[in-house]
Amino acid sequence: MMDNTRNSLKRVNRFASREYKEKHPKSVKVLRLKSKNVLTRGVLPYYQVQQQGPVIYLVVSDQGDNFMLYF
To answer: Kindly report the CA angle at 12 between 15 and 3, in degrees rounded to 5?
Structure first.
């Protein structure tokens, strides 16, 4: 069963908050990956085909000397 985007974002934000409280990094960011263009036609792209898929979120934790990525 697919979650809707709002519930997924809430779960990711809760995870990011817990990560910040438990490990005390410099910063924690939640990023959403965009869909990508598969095909573009025209000088000024008037026709675009985009790949649609599940919404993907990344949690980036800055530990100072390294980064932790969760997806």
So the answer is: 135
